[in-house]
Design brief:
The structure is a homodimer. By secondary structure, chain A is an alpha/beta fold. The first copy, chain A, has helices spanning 13-26, 39-46, 50-62, 101-107, 115-125, 145-164, 173-185, 200-212, 227-233, 252-261, 283-296, 319-322, 351-365, 370-381, 384-410, 436-445, 475-498; strands at residues 35-36, 66-69, 73-76, 131-132, 195-198, 218-223, 239-246, 249-250, 264-269, 300-303, 328-333, 345-348, 416-417, 425-429, 448-449, 451-452, 465-469.
């Protein structure tokens, strides 16, 4: 696959790549089923940033020219008719520069491009003067490191030998006790056999998939959705269907009709401060979801990871707290409140379900690290988690309000955003036709980062959406960063008004 | 499935269960493909210990009447002809007492019996006056808990905020630096891109499977083998073929012919102090394995977990240290030396391989807990790992020698055992016809526990083998425990000499 980029062109590099790949497909040089080089590899060859290629691929995916399969790679979509100019396909190049000859063939089919990965990389390597709204992780300045250090110290003094030795696969007993307490206060009565400690919600999702989802199964996921959930469930042979989540929240009518039309194996939901939209499912909505799940006999995986971060509005019971039939597998974690670096989360479900998940956990990594578990148990016992939660909510409330004020002040009138009742981010819809991916390129030059909405969609992508993670950003930077974004958007809108639409571009492609 | 046990019978309970299930199969009441109830469930129904049922199942598996599939359950083997007394099959009962009606059907196909699990459970819940040779885990009295506590304290003081925040998926940088040092001293030059931190060797195996092994693939495993590896690779659609490991070690002739006859995807080996046999592959053998892997283009997964525990004989380079072609994926962990409760291990392989494994790791649980990583890095930097290794080897050498002396003194002359050059256990072969599972029942009454060899075989089970884990047992208890086992064996042999063989039992079934 040979592409030629013109750095002096008005057309951004990612669109040059996109357009040329599209031509290769319509011209027949790339045939349905052909694999594209991994973005990292193509970026290296073209001498561009990996995000550039990832964005081109994301556009082509949104337009259904290509599709990515986690664990396999990115392929030209089936069912595309090559145009009349179809030519003989050139011999394919090897796409992986492996240092062992062997790996070239072995890895050939097992690679996937992960645009999220590029973003995470960006987030972790961002220059210190960058204002990053990318991640939804807790503000580390809140971490009571000294208190936690004393907890570590004391548990190591008291039970060091035991916790450093191999332990039970279902979790360290003292942490399980604390979690049962925490759950009780949330209206969930879980016995020890109904509770499994895992390495955070991501592992919770992964274990659920291992135990319940097999090739040929259908899973209903929110769309847009937490990218880690998409990555987990979209495996070969598994059909993922999106339940639309708009600014108004989960579409219950579509959910009902999807449940009626498909024999779904699982329904994965985030009723509380959904990631990325920040929407909350009403009490009535929760009851209806439970009824539907019971009627269609589909278990619900409830991702409750933002549950502790209600910043305004009335507390609502989780699906698990309302669950009378044992329909709900409830996932949660410490990670949005504190210490995501420790990787500790938990699953609540009926005992036979937990037993199967525990066996899968044991086969995966025996058990979760016990120093982290014991220290977190001590941290809870001393009331430090409660006081941290209090401080976190206060801080994030301030930041949410700062972000909303800045959005109102700086963003163009045509932009809309969800007013979340909690969580860590605001979901913004730009005026139709604007592309958040393109905005990111320009914003990056001004040292402001955020997550384009496309990373959260696995179908029906809305390229004009974006997520602003506010929790980790101080109010002054929130104001500054949003001012930069608003300025860029307003300039773009002015430009668009002056320009005529280019007739060569199909209407569905974002104008820049 | 209805079984009736007679507690007053001379026949042990597990044999009553085994025989009655056999009769149900030969009589046609259980047909090929029928699922047996999980051992836990059947044990509950019959009011016996779960191990009793697990042992009956293990015997039936060894005799090919039934077969267990991890993640699915235990089934009557295909290809068994019902006898002439074939009768109509009774309606099947539900085998899972779920508290949600839904789970009964959902979990129906996704359950597996795990006899190892029963053993682990036994090991963890054994009374304090029990002498347990079950596990191969480090002696916790060696753990320098206070030193480690100070390491935790200092890293939390120095870099607490950072290590408690979400981090890179390939590992905490300071630990990676230390590990590269450790590896250099082992003759392995690994760049940061060739090294991935994981949650112990079990996760290493699991990630390798995820990335490289797909339905339809063939994997070569040692037989007998670490049960966690069997559990990992024996998944639906994957063909596992055993490379025999005898008291003389890995059979290289069979390995060569298996490689010639099968298009193997991976070869999983433990050249150093193989678990469970304790055998070591010679330098010549290692070179030959590498040549074979290169010739047949099969990558090797080298499980090096016991590598630091050479107790006698000359140091040998690992396969990775000899690997010039990038053929080897090298797995290791801190867990056999210290602190398995922390769950920290690592993988060394060529950079593109590590990159794919890293992506799988990220999809599994984002990254390994960073407090454990940072504290272990500090522990290494202060030279504490080196001095611990020294003390561990001295202690285990004493225990190994005590065990060998006790075996020579107490075990019947017909028993044989491997003299390991390192590791944590001794592999014993009882006189042919004796069954280590039966010995375990009797030994348990005398408060001595060990692991029957059958848990390590996935084919061609030798029921007369057993593994004695000596590392965690003080010398006086080693002597005592082995004396008990030897006494039971000698009594059994005397009994056998007095008794005539029972004509109703096929010869391959162990006499008790």
């Amino acid at each position: 696959m040979h592409l030629t980029l013109d750095p002096n062109s008005q057309l951004p590099l990612y669109r040059q790549i996109r357009d040329q790949i599209r031509q290769l497909i319509t011209g027949g040089a790339l045939a349905p089923g052909d694999r594209l080089p991994p973005s990292r590899e193509l970026a290296r060859r073209l001498g561009v940033h990996r995000t550039t290629v990832a964005n081109a691929y994301a556009e082509l995916t949104a337009e259904n020219w290509i599709s990515g399969h986690v664990g396999r790679g990115t392929f030209v979509s089936k069912g595309i008719e090559p145009g009349p100019a179809s030519v003989a396909k050139p011999a394919r190049e090897s796409t992986i520069a492996a240092d062992g000859y062997l790996w070239t063939t072995l890895l050939d089919e097992s690679h996937a491009d992960d645009p999220l990965d590029v973003l995470i990389h960006d987030a972790l390597t961002a220059a210190p003067d960058t204002i990053s709204f990318i991640t939804a992780r807790p503000a580390e300045e809140l971490f009571p490191v000294d208190d936690f250090r004393r907890c570590c110290n004391d548990v190591l003094k008291r039970e060091g030998q035991r916790l450093l030795q191999l332990g039970p696969s279902d979790g360290y007993p003292s942490l399980k006790e604390c979690l049962r307490d925490v759950l009780r206060r949330q209206g969930i009565a879980a016995s020890a056999r109904e509770l499994l400690v895992v390495n955070g919600c991501q592992q919770g999702l992964d274990l659920v998939r291992r135990v319940f989802v097999h090739p040929g199964d259908t899973v209903l996921l929110e769309n847009p959705c937490y990218p880690g959930a998409i990555q987990t469930f979209r495996t070969p042979g598994v059909k993922c269907i999106g339940v639309p989540v708009s600014e108004q929240g989960l579409n219950l009518e579509v959910l009902e009709s999807l449940l009626g039309q498909n024999r779904a194996r699982l329904l994965v939901l985030t009723p509380e401060f959904q990631n990325p939209t920040g929407t909350t499912l009403s009490l009535e909505g929760r009851r209806r979801v439970l009824e539907l799940a019971a009627r269609y006999q589909v278990p619900i995986v409830e991702d409750h990871i933002y549950g502790a971060l209600r910043l305004r509005g009335r507390e609502l019971p989780s699906l698990k707290a309302l669950d009378r039939r044992g329909l709900v597998i409830h996932l949660n974690s410490f990670s949005k409140l504190c210490f995501p670096g420790l990787r500790v989360g938990w699953i609540v479900a009926s005992a036979p379900v937990i037993e199967r998940l525990r066996m899968a956990k044991q086969a995966t990594d025996l058990h979760t690290g016990q120093l982290a578990q014991a220290a977190l148990a001590e941290f809870c016992r001393r009331g430090l988690l409660d006081s941290l939660s209090e401080r976190a909510r206060t801080l994030y409330r301030t930041r949410l309000e700062a972000a909303e004020k800045a959005l109102a002040r700086h963003f163009p009138a045509e932009a809309r955003w969800v007013r979340p009742e909690g969580g860590m981010s605001i979901w913004v819809s730009l005026p139709e036709g604007l592309d958040a991916g393109v905005l990111l390129f320009k914003a990056r030059e001004r040292k402001v980062l955020f997550t384009p909405g496309r990373f959260f969609y696995f179908q029906a992508v809305r390229p004009n959406t974006l997520r602003l993670g506010f929790a980790g950003v101080p109010p002054r930077q929130i104001e500054q960063g949003i001012a930069v974004l608003g300025g860029l958007l307003k300039a773009e809108l002015r430009q668009r008004r002056r320009e005529k639409p280019q007739p060569t571009e199909p209407a569905r492609v974002a104008l820049v």
